[in-house]
Input
Amino acid sequence: MNFNITTDNIAEIKSDLEIIIVIDKDLKHRFVADRKLLKKAGFSGGQNELCHLIEKNRLYVGADSLKGDGVRPAVAAATRSLIGKKAYKTIKIATYLSHPRCTASLRAVVEGIVLGSYSFTTYKSEKVKSSIKKVEISLEGYNELEITPESAARAVHNGEISANATNFTRDIVNTTPDDCYPKVMADIAQAMAKETGLKCKVLKPKELKKEKMETLLAVARASRHKPRVIHLAHKPKNPKAVISLVGKGLTYDSGGLSLKPADYMVTMKSDKSGGSAVLGIMKAISEMNLPVEVHGFVGAVENMIGGNAYKPDDVLTAKNGKTIEIRNTDAEGRLVLADTLCYAQQEVKADYLFDFATLTGACVVGVGHYTSGVMGNDDDIKSLVTYGAKSSGELATKLDFNPYLKKTIKSEIADVCNISNTRYGGAITAGQFLSEFIDNDHKDKWAHIDIAGPAFVEHAWGENPYGASGAGVRMTIRLIEKIVRTEGK
Ligand code: BES
Ligand code: ZN
Ligand code: ZN
Output
């Protein structure tokens, strides 16, 4: 898809279709040219409501506001309605701004178009795809607020990169466990690194053993697919900060011997969403060439059953020497992350450390399936994550640690237990388990983001169709952009 910014009057641009966003529910605004027709069609301008005037080549879509959260899903709904319609190869859209000189809405429009055009067709005989090849954006504003061509170009460029990275992550997550296992994830990382210029190192079982990543290896043991740890690096000269990202890459989570019930196992191909988000974020950071050093680590493992599976009652030793009593093999993500976090901290002394994981069903129960849970020891770092979410149209909320819940993961026979002794607060106790594997240097630099809710969408919402959403990608790009703006000031 090709975006072109022009100062031409919107009416003069040739295209197959114009997308028009309507925030004025009364349709009284002088730019709503087809007021009468829209009224006749019963269009009331509700969020994501569509009215396609086929003969006029105009597609109207309602939005509650011109802010990102209004226009991104609206434009995504409009472009999604064009999937499979071959007549629409070029579309045009005017510039909508919510504040003078603020390009956030323009970026959201671009993201909406790219995210809305996404379809996952790998396993379909008939590939129904978006036909949009070219998007013309007129700088002529519908609300007469000013914008410079340079800032518009930057917004369009960054919007394209972050939405394409989100779609890249969606593709990985949507791929079936038989087609995307740890080696394949590593191959995807290596191919992407080659394309973008990132450095990429892949650790195989022999190296993982050498690194004493015994908990990760134990989870992987019963699978015919051997584990991998992936390390990607973006290293510009004179970086403003050093950032490490760590992702849970469970290419399948059957639960292991603490086997999941049948209904809960379906969709567990999405347990690689955290690792896949890290791959998407690394791709975007490299394409945006941001002046920060960013490292991406992925623990790619499959959790299966078998005669050599790890067991409830085992005690495992993590890379940092802490012993873990296993009471449930379905709480495997925290074990894989424990070793991957230790490895990441050993390899890189970071100013910021974020981990992403579909870690707990409890997080989904607690905050709903639209929202990620943000945990950590330091409030400022959690605020940075919720800022990233808010400004990118993702939803994330803080879940605070407390010393009482911490006690519930104590073990009688080892340093810590892999599950809590209470049914409640499972997202937080999982986060507090991870905190056992954060060293003193990184204690206040770390945030854990539980994306179990939004990572996989069973009923389309917002800018997300059925399937993987790419949760974590846009919010993290935004927060890294903020680090770039504020570091060294
Ligand atoms: N991958 C799951 C968590 C999950 C659940 C992700 C639903 C996405 C949707 C994780 O490995 C898991 O199974 N966690 C257990 C932990 C429990 C055994 C303490 C859970 O949440 O039930
Ligand atoms: Zn599990
Ligand atoms: Zn899992």
About this structure: The longest strand covers residues 242-253. Residues 253, 271, 328, 330-333, 358-362, 364, 419, 426, 452 surround BES (ligand 1) (CB under 6 Å). The chain has a mean pLDDT of 96. The chain has two domains: 2-140, 167-487.
